[in-house]
Every structure is written in C-alpha cells, then in structure tokens.
Design goal:
This protein is an alpha+beta fold. The protein is built from 11 helices and 31 strands. It folds into 3 domains: about 280 residues, Thrombin, subunit H; about 90 residues, Roll (Pdz3 Domain), CATH 2.30.42.10; about 100 residues, Pdz3 Domain, CATH 2.30.42. A hairpin with a 5-residue loop joins strand 6 and strand 7. The protein is globular, with a radius of gyration of 25 Å.
Length: about 500
C-alpha cells in the first residue's frame, strides 16, 4: 500500500453481543460429502497444518472421584475439556457523538469511552484466540480474562467483517489450547454445548458457563438486515446463546470445538432457542488467512449467481452473467447455467455459492457441476483473488484508502461509472467527519474530474496547501446508483 504522506482530514473540533438477525432461510442438506473430483478440497484439510483437528474423543477424566465407577455425562466431559481454553474478551473503544458548530468553534470533543465484552477460545500453542469480529470491532484496547480471573493484555492480529471472525493474541503458553473438531460431519439431533461468558460480569464470575442443547440444523442461511455479513451455511442450535457468548465455542459431546457462537434470532433480545454458530472448518480457514497473509483474500471467478424459483424447487442458483476474460469464461460457463455443486458443496442458492467459494479459497482449482438445457456437465474453475484485493491501495488522506476503478473492478462491484477512485477502507472518524463511506467512488474534487487514485491523491495534496480555498474541498461521489457531494476541509498534518 502506498501512503501519500502528511495529508489528512482536519478535525475541527458494549457488551459484545451476537448480531441480531431478523430473517432466516432454510435449505436442503445432504449427508453425502464425497466428491469424485481429485480437486475436491475439504476445508478441514486446508486448516490441518496450522490447527490440528481431530474426530476421535480427546482423553478426559471420566469418573467422579466420589462416585466410584459412575461415568460422567458427555456434556460434563466436553465442558471440562474445552472450558479452560475459553476466555472473556473485554474491549474499550472511543465513541464520538455529533459535533456542533459551537464544538468546532471552541475545539470541544464529544468523544466518550465505551466498553464491550464477548468470548473467545485459544486455537493454537502460539496464543492465538478466535472470536467474532463484532466483539473487537473498533476496539482501542483489548484485554483477555481467563477462567481464574487473570487479566492478560491482548493485541488484535486481524479481523474480517464479512465472515464475522477475528483473531487476537496473548503470550503463548498462558492459556491451554482448545481441542478442535470438524464441522464436516455434523448430524442433526446430536448434542451441542455452548460455552462462553453471558452477560459479562454481572454475576461477578469470570469462569465460563455452559448451556446444552442439540444441533437443530446445518447449512442454515440467514438474511441479516442492514449488515454486510456472510451468515450462510451456519450451524443452528437450541443451546442458549446469550449476550456475551459471542465468539465462544460450540462443542460436541466428544469435547471438541465444532463452531464459533455468533448470532441469534430473537424478538426479546435474549435466547429463544434459535442460535447460530460459524462452522469451525470455515473459521479455521479464515484464521489461517489472517495469521499467514495478514488479511482475508476474497475469491472471485468473474460471474454473478442469483437465486430464482423453478418448477421443481423454491429456488435454484442460476448464472446471471459471465464477464469476459475471467476464470468463469475460460471454464466455459454461460448465463442461464444452473449451478449444482462446487467440489463437495451442494449449491441450492446464491448464498451457498458465496460460502463454497470462501471455503475452497483463493488460488485453488475447483470442479463445478452445472445443468445446461437439462444436461449435467462438469468443468474446472480457477479461483482468483477479487480485483479490488489485488489492486494497489493508496492512502490519499490519513485514514482514507483508495484504488483506481478498472474494468475488472467495475465487474466485481457492479459499478455503472467507468472511472474514478473507489474507497476500500476508511476510518470511522474520517467517515463521520466527511460523510464518505466505504464503497463510494470519488469521481470529482472541486469541479475537477478524478479518473484514478493518483489524480485523487494529487488533488487532495494540492488543496491541502491551497491558501485561497483554506483547504476546503467538495468531493463528488457515486454511492450505489446515486450521485452526491460532500464538503470538508483537508490540511497538512502537523501544520
């Protein structure tokens, strides 16, 4: 990433709960996870090198000392195996209120500190802790508390909003590693145990609590209102997941982690028996990307898939468009093809397609089964990183990163504008002060056309030094299918 030094916006002046969702869509599931393709890639295999996963029960004490030969219930064994690896995650973030003209005149700030809390669990001997993105989002400070009440400073390794996963790090060896299982062979009706720290420290306890239930469903797709989060192919459980449980493990009766507790469907704000967890196979793959690459690479093949009703099914995944000179075109896919399977993933909707791409991962070749005019066919499809992920990022203002709009970026983002500078990252404070948002395309500054990120950087630098305008800029943007303009001041930082 390039940084245009010294230019910035002039500032003139929880509790980590599961995301509340409002709509869910079920889909058929299949017990057949096999594939006759040599390129079929199980996600659990991709994560094995860094995070060993087991399917056999871990060793555990199975007798009550006071009860002779009476065996412990499986849920007790599971809780004892995983419980010591579960932590509470306490966060502190800065919340800024709206700034009035008087605040600007007298240099007053309406910032305040807000606390949040969630759960997490250690996944390797290096001290990496897996949790939810929404638990640590915008955190200025992160602290981990183990079951004994010991407070440990932690740092954020990386976070991914779309999959709602994050990794934090503590000193290796301070907390034991959780036994990791696989989510590839879950059976509806099998026991499930949710472990975490519900409602924070309102009970004045630091050790995690346990709720039990069953796997109510697998492959559940959730439509999350107003959030860009991929809540698809989720594990549903009736084990109570309450505020504060976010990021904690969902465990099977063998005492191995099978999911990351993430969200609930509720009308009351508490658990109503509809909890959802991210499958551990996907979570570990994302964790590996965060640790090894420093970010999560998004797969892209150059086509769009939509869900449409058919005579036989409520919905089927249909290829709506194939872009030229892309992996999908090279694979021979066409508009109107009905996607049936991607490697071992059965595809029943566009959400299934999105999840399957994430699970296969960038720089892998997958086998796609599809129907064309009723005939079943197969082809090999190469997964590339999305064009915006490969593009060079330029920090044109402090806290504002842009990339140039290219034909590939237009395809990826379905942009109607043919040029400009796309906002790919923006700090919360900068967004609040300027009105700009991630995903906006800047196409003009002070009446001058902006065709690339370099032109945007040049203009911001020029107007930061321009005495006649006193740093004021009017920035013209495209947001979705609308156009607009925002006025704010830029200046040389430190001046």
């Amino acid at each position: 990433m390039r940084v245009i030094g010294g230019v910035g916006v002039l500032f003139l002046a929880g509790l980590g709960v599961g995301a509340i969702v409002t709509t869910l869509a079920d889909r058929p599931t299949s017990a057949d996870l096999s594939s006759d393709s040599p390129d079929a890639l199980l996600v659990s295999t991709l994560a094995t090198d860094r995070f060993p996963q087991e399917t056999t029960p871990p060793p555990a004490r199975t007798k009550r000392p006071e009860a002779g030969d009476a065996p412990l219930p499986p849920t007790v064994t599971a809780a004892r195996n995983v419980g010591p690896s579960v932590v509470s995650i306490r966060t502190e973030r800065t919340v800024r209120g709206p700034v009035t003209r008087l605040d600007q005149m007298f240099g007053r700030s309406r910032a305040r500190k807000a606390s949040g809390l969630g759960s997490g669990f250690v996944v390797d001997a290096d001290g990496h802790i897996l949790t939810n993105h929404h638990v640590v989002r915008d955190a200025d400070r992160i602290e981990v508390v183990d079951q004994s009440g010991r407070r440990l400073p932690a740092e954020l390794v990386g976070s991914d909003e779309i999959t709602d996963l994050a990794m934090v790090h503590v000193t290796p060896g301070t907390i034991p590693t959780a036994p990791l299982g696989t989510s590839s062979d879950l059976v509806v009706g099998e026991p499930a145990i949710a472990i975490g720290n519900p409602s924070g420290y309102q009970l004045a306890n630091t050790e995690p609590t346990v709720t039990t239930g069953v796997i109510s469903g697998t492959g559940r797709d959730i439509v999350s209102q107003g959030e860009e989060v991929l809540y698809a192919d989720m594990i549903q459980t009736d084990a109570a997941i309450n505020p504060g449980n976010s990021g904690g493990p969902l465990v099977n009766a063998d005492g191995r982690v099978i999911g990351v507790n993430s969200s609930i469907f509720t009308l009351s704000g508490g658990s109503e028996g509809l909890g959802f967890a991210i499958p551990i196979d996907r979570a570990l793959r994302i964790a590996s990307e965060i640790i090894d690459v420093g970010r999560v690479r998004r797969p892209w093949v150059g086509l769009t898939v939509v869900s449409e009703p058919s005579e036989e099914y409520i919905r089927v995944p249909v290829v709506e468009q194939v872009y030229p000179d892309t992996p999908a075109e090279r694979a021979g896919l066409r508009a109107g093809d009905v996607i049936v399977r991607l490697n071992q993933h059965e595809i029943h909707s566009h959400l299934d397609w999105d999840v399957a791409l994430v699970d296969v991962g960038v720089n892998h070749v997958a086998t796609v089964e599809y129907r064309r005019n009723g005939a079943l066919s197969k082809t090999r499809l190469e997964l590339e990183e999305i064009p915006s992920g490969r593009a060079e990022r330029v920090e044109v203002l402090s806290g504002l990163q842009l990339i140039s709009v290219t034909p590939q970026i237009r395809q990826e983002r379905s942009l109607f504008i043919e040029f400009g500078a796309l906002i790919v990252d923006i700090d919360a404070d900068v967004a609040r002060q300027t009105g700009l948002r991630k995903g906006d395309v800047i196409y003009g500054i002070n009446g001058n056309e902006v065709r690339s990120v370099d032109e945007a950087a040049e203009m911001f630098t020029y107007y930061a030094r321009e005495a006649r305008t006193n740093g004021m800029v009017r920035v013209y943007v495209v947001r979705g299918n609308r156009r607009g303009a925002f006025d704010f001041r830029v200046g040389r930082t430190g001046s």
